[in-house]
Specification:
Two copies of one chain form a homodimer. Chain A is α+β, with helices and mostly antiparallel strands. Chain A has four helices and three strands. Chain A binds a DNA duplex through helix 2, helix 3 and strand 3.
DNA sequence: GCTCTATATGTCGCTCGGCGATATATATGT
DNA sequence: ACATATATATCGCCGAGCGACATATAGAGC
């Protein structure tokens, strides 16, 4: 109902799903790559997040298939999921820009009266 | 000992402290402004985070003073805190840039074969 | 004087998310 | 037979976020 604010892990899941649908195990690898190896999703994190994102209407089931005898369940972004991801990305970019400005300013003037 | 990965709240606390030392109540206001009103730190969050950041060596006590009969405890970044904040900011900026590229690409080609 | 709001610190307990351990199943390699 | 990799899913622990509460001062309004 009330969409909880995105944690980094959930944001990365949405971002990973942006170009095309992915299945669970593939998502873990995609998120790891997107974050340069920093975020390694645990199984509990992944399926818990997927349930929540599904309940919030941001992610939905795409299709299921069997590859090499192994079952894969593919998920994709909903329209709302895409909108939320876009908005969150803009928010993130603005925060990063603001942070850089603030750091540059504090380097020159560590104190207000400096 | 082992510095846990920064949540958004802790990151904003570090960022707020970058230009100059701040006291608890002022930090709550600063973080709210830095995040455009989106992140409103609860008291439990603030002092819990301050304890953790202190234990990790990122934040330390600056000084204490009484203003208008009210006690204020000021905190400031350590050198390590400044380094961590800078690194985290760069990571954030890179992620945001990567996310924008990924979104732009998926808008043109929703599917690999599109 | 009493109450409410704002400022200021800090604690306590609840809830929820992250995550490793575990279970299940198939394919491959040694 | 055993280990490794792929693949899904559940369980319970732990820790972070957070509201509620306690405490204290200052000022406004009645």
């Amino acid at each position: 109902m009330k969409p909880s604010p995105l944690r980094e892990q959930s944001y990365l899941i949405l971002l990973a799903l942006a170009p095309e649908p992915l299945y669970g195990y593939g998502l873990i690898a995609a998120v790891r790559e997107l974050s340069d190896g920093r975020v390694k999703l645990g199984a509990g994190t992944l399926y818990g997040a997927l349930d929540r994102l599904g309940a919030d209407g941001l992610v939905t089931l795409d299709h299921e298939e069997v590859v090499d005898g192994r079952f894969r369940r593919y998920y994709k972004l909903t329209d709302q999921g895409h909108r939320v991801l876009t908005a969150e990305t803009e928010r993130l970019a603005e925060l990063a820009a603001r942070a850089r400005r603030r750091l540059a300013a504090s380097r020159v003037a560590p104190r207000p009266a400096g």
